[in-house]
Amino acid sequence: MTVEERFGDVDFSQASQVKDSLLMRLKLRRRAINEEQMSLSELDEVSAAGVFTQHKVDEKNLHVY
User: Fold this and answer.
1) Residue 40: which domain range?
2) Residue 64 phi/psi, 5° resolution?
3) How many domains does the chain have?
């Protein structure tokens, strides 16, 4: 077993002063993100509304500033 493999298996969050596991926090955040996904009708409404940009576009050279 190489050093990289051994460190890959170590949960460094156990050494943290934070009480909850960092891995558990990441898993909970991923679950929250997945639950926040838009429905197809919501996506249709957003795409129909268009994209708002606050950047200045140089139409001659097509650069965004």
Assistant:
1) 3-64
2) -105, 130
3) 1
